[in-house]
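User:
I would dearly like some help making sense of a protein record. Take your time, and here it is.
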Amino acid sequence: MSVDEMTLADGWRAARPPVAGVHVDSAACSRQSLAVIDASARHARHEAEVGGYVAAEAAGPVLDAGRAAVRALTGMGDADVVFTTGANDALDILLRDWTGDRTLACLPGEFGPSLMTMERNGFEIRELPVDGFGRLDLDAVGAFLSSSPPALVHFTVLGSHSGIVQPALDMAAACRGHGIPLVVDAAQGFAHLDCAGLGADALYATSRKWTAGPRGVGMLATKPGLLSEPTTLRLSHAEKNVGLHVGLSVALGEHMAAGPENMQARLREVGAATRTALAQVPGWSVIEPVDEPSAITTLRAPDGVDPMAVRARLITEQAIVTTYLGVERAPREMTQPALRVSPHVDVTGTDLETLAEALAATTR
C-alpha cells in the first residue's frame, strides 16, 4: 500500500466518529463524517434561528457547490441537477415524465424496486444480453438494439447484488449509435467508479452509499430540456430537506478534495484485498473475480447456511455490519440469497481478518 493510499485511508477514518465494531456495509450506507453531520445540524439550527426559507437562501452557495460537484463527477457540464429523496425517487421522476413509447431495456440483474417502478409507470421491460457473470455482452448488444430497439435504455453501472462492473462507456456508445436515450443508474457507481464521459441523457445516484452523505437524499442530473416544464416547475416547488442537501454537498466536497481518481484506485485495492481474504473462508464462495474493479464482494454461503442468519449473528456477536441479499433484490437474475461485503477506503487488514474469522466461526 502506497503512502498516498495510507494517507487517504487514515484521513477518511480520522474524519469520522470511531466505528463501533467493523463496518463493511458501504454499498448500503456509508459512515458520515463529523463535518457532514455538523453541517446538517447547523442548518437545522439556522432554520430555527432565522426561519426555514431564509436559511435555505443562505445555504444557496453550498448547494450550488454540491450541484457543481455532481456535474464534474458525471462529466455533464451543462446538466440540470436536482436533489431528490433517493435513487428510486429519481427514477420515478424520469419515468413519469417520459413522453415517448413505454419500452425500456435493462440488464437482467436490474434492482427489484426499480423493476417495480418501471412496471408501475407502464413500461414494457426487455432484457439486454449478458454473459455468464451478468455483464453486458458487447458482441450481442448491437444486434439487440437494431432488431428490437427500445424507446429507452436504463443501465445500472454496478448492481446492488453484485460487484461486477458493467461496461458503461460501451453501452453509452451503442445507445448513441442507435439514437436511443440512455438513463444511468449510478446508485452504487457514483463516488466509487468513474462515471464521467458517458454522455448519458440522465444519471441518478444516492447520497448514503459511496458518497458517504446523509440518508434520505439523492441526485438527478439531466441534459437541459429533458424534463418537461411542468415537472421542472413541480420539482422547484417541492418540499425539501435542505439540511440533508447541505450535508450531501459537504460530502461531495470532501470527495472532490480527496481526489476522485484516488478514491477509485483505493476502492479497487479494497475490493481485491477483501476478495483475497474471504476466499480463504471454508465453505464460502466469492462470486467476483479477485481483480474486479469494485469494492463490492458477494459471498455464496455453504449449503444449508442461511446468509440472513449469518448477518444477524455477525452484528449481535461480533459488531460486524454486512448486507443480506435476498433474491428479491435482483429477481430476474438471482437464484439464491447471498451475503454482501462492501468496505470503504478506511478498511484495515485487521478488519478483514476479523471478518474472515467471524464468518468461519458462524459456519464451523
